[in-house]
Amino acid sequence: MLDAAHELLGEGGLNALSMRALARRLGVTPNALYSHVDTKASLVDELLDDVLEAVETPDADGADWQAGLRTIMTSTHAVLLGHADLVPQYLARQGARGPNAQRLGEVMLALLGRGGVTGGGAHRARQALIIHAIGSAAFATPLPLDGNDAVELRQAGLIAAFDAGLRWLLAGIAADVSLATLAGAEK
Amino acid sequence: MLDAAHELLGEGGLNALSMRALARRLGVTPNALYSHVDTKASLVDELLDDVLEAVETPDADGADWQAGLRTIMTSTHAVLLGHADLVPQYLARQGARGPNAQRLGEVMLALLGRGGVTGGGAHRARQALIIHAIGSAAFATPLPLDGNDAVELRQAGLIAAFDAGLRWLLAGIAADVSLATLAGAEK
DNA sequence: CGGTGAACTGTACGCTGTACATTTTACCTG
DNA sequence: CAGGTAAAATGTACAGCGTACAGTTCACCG
């Protein structure tokens, strides 16, 4: 059933994913779906988290924590770009409901911790990174009226902007750590 | 009519804003609305841009361009927080359709230019800042199931995270300018 | 006074999510 | 193999949605 839902989403976007269309595809009456799913919103939540399974998680114990974060955020961004319809929903859900999202969040915290970012600072840093990744993907959602070629051109620029923003954020986070270290050394 | 739409939005969120409900409030049949508005989506677009009128625009020729950007982004963030329902839509629209949004975007470019950020770099910087502001607001959208007190507590943390991210971005943007200046001096 | 355009109405279509009571199906236990 | 039980699917139904279409009212201007 989730498979069929993903198919519909891929073929006709979020508009094509109605309970009735999904039931039709499965050769079943619409209400049968409610034996497997509480509500349409929760269905979308599941789809949302499914998508994140494709995100590439770096080894949390690797050498360079910043590179690790860059990998995970870039991969998240790329994956979300492939599911533009879902992204606005995602932000409103704080991107943190399903198990996959949770796993990614924990890897991020671990990486930050290995860089010396802990406690409230780590949560703030993680949130800024998440917002940047999801927000950038949402920004790339093609408007219905744009042509296909125009879309691709725009996407190249958007990816460059994503990359620049990601570097700024990571640099800022790392700089804060240095500051804290210096302040600690002074004591 | 836009006033009535804003009222509905304020009272019952996006769910309460249906063409039929709006018509009811105006004492009119639903179809009468289509003499004033192309489609519901375009109505929402207008509402969206209306909201941005409240954003505080600093003097683009003021002393400190970074402070100016901080003001405009913080104000945007605060304004959007008051209209949580609209924010996800906003991101998907690239927040750049209406005249108010356009005006804000130009002020941002002007401020960046005064800091020596120009060309493609300025567009990337602006985009990162916009994404951060809108994305942070979207992240703060209260989930239906949360209690009111829990929401307010969370919002305090979210605003702190917004602030931290904003500083990181600005610092990164400013640092890039210094680098470019140094590189230019070397030539 | 006649005409023109905007505003509005009534009717209608096809779609949405989902509640309720009922029936079919699959499986486990005695 | 028989009987019970729980999951799954069904038919019917409701209230709502956005909006297309054709026709009417009405204010205003030449």
How many alpha or pi helices of chain A?
8
Strand content of chain A: under 5%
Global Rg of chain A: 19 Å
| Uncertain segments of chain A | none
* Largest interface: pair, residues per side: A-B, 38 and 38 residues
Looking at how many chains there are and whether they match, the oligomeric state comes to: homodimer
Percent helix among the residues of chain A?
over 70%
Number of distinct beta strands of chain A: 0
Structural class of chain A: mainly alpha
Shape estimate of chain A: elongated
Largest sheet of chain A: none
Order of helices and strands of chain A: HHHHHHHH
Distance between the termini of chain A: 60 Å
Mean pLDDT over the full residue set of chain A: 88
Describe the SSE topology.
Two copies of one chain form a homodimer.
Chain A: H1 2-16, H2 19-26, H3 40-51, H4 65-81, H5 87-92, H6 99-114, H7 119-139, H8 148-186
Helix pairs in contact in A: 1-2, 4-6, 4-7, 4-8, 6-7, 7-8
Chain A binds a DNA duplex (30 and 30 nucleotides) through loops.
Structural write-up:
Two copies of one chain form a homodimer. Chain A contains eight helices and no strands. Chain A has 187 residues and is mostly helical. In chain A, helix 4 (65-81) packs parallel to helix 7 (119-139). The first copy, chain A, is elongated. Chain A starts with a helix and ends with a helix. The mean pLDDT of chain A is 88. Chains A and B meet through helix 5, helix 7 and helix 8 of A and helix 5, helix 7 and helix 8 of B.
